[in-house]
Amino acid sequence: MNDALTNFLLWSGNMVLALVISPLLIGIINKTKAFFAGRQGPRLLQLYYDLAKLLKRSSVYSRSTSAVFRIAPCCVLAASCMMLLLLPAACVKSPFNFIGDMILFVYLAGIGRMLTVLAAMETASAFEGMGSSRECQFAILAEGVLLAVLAALVMLTREFSLSGCLVTLKLNAWLSGGTSLLFLAVAFYLVMLCENCRVPVDDPETHLELTMIHEAMILDNSGPDLALIHYAAALKLWVFLSFLASLILPDLGNWMVWEFVIYYALIFLLTISIGVVESVMARYRFRKVPQFLAGALAVALLAIVLAAVFGGNWTK
Predict the structure, then answer these.
(1) Hey, how many other C-beta atoms are within 10 angstroms of the C-beta on 58?
(2) 3's torsion region: left (phi>0), alpha (psi -120 to 50) or beta?
(3) In whole angstroms, what is the distance from residue 206 CA to residue 215 CA?
(4) Residues 201, 194 contacting (CB under 8 angstroms)
């Protein structure tokens, strides 16, 4: 079996695994939060049961909605799946990678957000309108941080694709420029919390309409549509965690098996860290969220400065 076929099979297996176990990440976060709260919490596979229950029900649509509201959940899920297609799997490049695909990655994240906002506005609900307004406001800053992180990666690797940036980083990159990469990882971790509507930007477990962002936008969704939205959110979380794990994990050469082991271990450790963050701090007030994202942007820009001053081609 040649190397190209082996890499394709490994990448395909990672793709299938991501589609199957991404809802497990939400269960890990909830279990971590329950541990810190001293309670048992929901089942680890609770989201799987919720998705199965929602798929058995029928969707209810408001008379004010149009076809946009009906197709939005499917399109949001499609956007998350396309983001996953562009990402490498540990040390294996995506077969769909191309020069400039990182720009498409950012646009796909924006498309999913835009469709969710449009569907929420279709319901003519004041609460969903407020959630949409907040989502758009914070998205502007979050996308700036994401673009800054990608720009720094391009400067460090001289690559213009996601697979090229994330797979070609050698161990020498952490030895000679670990500070810059650490700042990049921190900036991406902060923007990941915002993109996935986690604490301190949003609280996915709140039921107070005046303080919700993502949950406020999906109040009118039900049945299979709501199941698709929840599954797309879990898959998007996997995408961002996979990106961060690939950024942290250097290329270990011929140790492919160990790279995959460390890759999945990093994904689950980062998932636990999200639960820890949500256990030790509360959601910020809305006026502080722009400051939070501005801080993440400052960290990313500092990484760019360090990459420009001390960086070289760290893919060798």
Answers:
(1) 8
(2) alpha
(3) 8
(4) yes
Mean pLDDT of the chain: 91
Amino acid occupying residue 177 = G
- Using an 8 Å Cβ cutoff, are 301 and 56 in contact? no
Q: Report the C-alpha gap between 118 and 30 in whole angstroms.
A: 29
Q: How many CA atoms lie within 13 A of 252 on its CB side?
A: 14
The C-alpha atoms of residue 304 and residue 228 are separated, in whole angstroms, by: 37
Q: Tell me, what amino acid is at 288? A: K
> What share of residues in the chain are helix, strand, coil (percent, to 5)?
75, 0, 25
Place of tokens 């609280």: 203
Residues 109, 83: contact at Cβ < 8 Å? yes
Tokens 């697979």 sit on residue: 163
Amino acid identity at 262: I
Average pLDDT on 249-265 reads 87
Tokens representing 270 are: 């980062």
Q: How far apart, in Å, are the Cα atoms of 92 and each of 169, 174, 241?
A: 12, 19, 16
Over 60: is that where the pLDDT of 301 sits?
Answer: yes
CA–CA dist 102, 159 (Å, integer): 10
Tens-digit pLDDT profile for residues 94-119:
999 999 999 999 999 999 999 999 99
Query: Helix crossing, 101-122 with 223-248: angle to 10°?
Result: 150
Burial class (CB in 10 A: 0-12, 13-18, 19+), 221: buried
Handedness of CA 22, 296, 204, 218 (dihedral sign): negative
Q: Which two tokens stand for residue 229?
A: 């939205």
